[in-house]
Design brief:
Blueprint: E1 11-15, H1 20-25, H2 27-36, E2 41-46, H3 51-56, E3 62-65, H4 72-85, E4 89-92, H5 97-109, E5 114-116, E6 123-124, H6 128-132, H7 135-145, E7 175-179, H8 193-205, E8 209-212, H9 219-228, E9 233-234, H10 243-250, E10 253-256, H11 260-266, E11 272-276, H12 282-285, E12 292-296, H13 305-312
Parallel strand pairs: 1-2, 1-4, 2-3, 4-5, 5-6, 7-8, 7-10, 8-9, 10-11, 11-12
Helix pairs in contact: 2-7, 4-5, 8-9, 10-11
Length: 316
């Protein structure tokens, strides 16, 4: 179905919730939408945790917040806000049951031009593609269906050159960046802190310091690493999300779990080593890039640090 041409300027809504990694994986799609709607007013609907980061992308003129509460009153509140904005076009990059309900409530009040995977929307993408394609390909196909110019791209890997910013931090001259945390709801994705500590000790013997980043709730992990490697620099809870890429650019090597900040760090292009469990299918979820190495092991407790160390030695 060809995209309906509407008069400029249009009011555009982009919806993206999820974990931070989901937001990072959508940055390429955000950029394509912004490039195709240069004369339009683009609003992002996302979670409060990601507000500051998303504002720094400069892809959006406005950010609306959705706490994602599970109640009919909340669904009505958010859909009322969307309805009042009278958007001309809505890109649902989340494709969840929640956003499907938003569509049905909105579409009952007035027909909306909606791109997503909910049946009945104007620019429908089959739900099966969400289970078969990596987000970079899935989002590219969704925007192609909506009629956007992808400039020949079939995969929307993020270009984060705009995020190379200065840091208000003093970093070691030679260091390796470690991202040893993950969502507290997905502990299966965490490689044991003692294994990170093992690598930190070996790195110190080779003249490299260790810098650890993560959220405030991951400080205990950093402290476990510091017990074995006391000189490691613990920055957990001390950085903003947008700082992570700046730190990654200065690191010799990056080691991290399947977590949003790791996906951000991968964009630095520096050698990145990722312990990967069977919790998520690598072909559908793992970061991509020439310098990214996955170390797959169904249960990460069984992933010996020697495997990562032998690979790291080649790039130190």
């Amino acid at each position: 179905m060809s995209k309906i041409i509407l008069p400029h300027p249009q009011k555009i809504l982009v919806i993206r919730h999820g974990a931070f990694g989901d937001v990072v994986k959508s940055l390429g799609a955000f950029q394509i939408i912004a490039e195709n709607h240069k004369q339009d007013h683009i609003t992002l609907l996302t979670m409060p945790l990601f507000e500051d980061f998303c504002k720094k992308t400069e892809f959006f003129d406005e950010v609306m917040l959705d706490e994602r509460r599970r109640s009919p009153s909340h669904y009505l509140k958010i859909t009322n806000q969307i309805h009042e904005k009278n958007f001309d076009f809505i890109y649902d990059l989340q494709g969840s049951k929640r956003t499907g309900r938003y569509f049905k409530i909105l579409n009952f009040r007035r027909k909306v031009q909606w791109s997503g995977n909910v049946k009945g929307c104007a620019f429908y993408q089959k739900m099966s593609q969400k289970k078969m394609l990596h987000p970079y390909e899935r989002l590219a196909e969704q925007l192609r269906i909506a009629g956007l110019d992808l400039k020949g791209k079939t995969s929307l890997q993020p270009d984060l050159s705009w995020l190379k910013i200065g840091l208000p931090l003093t970093l070691p001259r030679k260091f390796v960046l470690m991202i040893p945390g993950s969502s507290p709801h997905t502990l299966e994705k965490r490689w044991p802190s003692l294994f990170y500590a093992d690598l930190a000790t070996r790195l110190k013997d080779r003249g490299f310091e260790t810098v650890i980043v993560g959220g405030p709730n991951e400080t205990s992990i950093a402290q476990e690493i510091k017990q074995r490697s006391p000189l490691a620099l613990d920055l957990t809870g001390k950085t903003e999300l947008h700082d992570i890429l700046g730190i990654a650019h200065r690191a010799k090597v990056i080691i991290g779990n399947d977590t949003g900040p790791l996906f951000l760090a991968c964009a630095s292009g520096n050698p990145t080593f990722v312990p990967w469990s069977s919790y998520c299918k690598a072909e559908l979820n793992a970061p991509r890039g020439d310098n990214i190495s996955l170390f797959e092991e169904p249960i990460l407790l069984n992933l010996n640090p020697d495997r990562l160390w032998y690979a790291m030695e080649k790039v130190l």
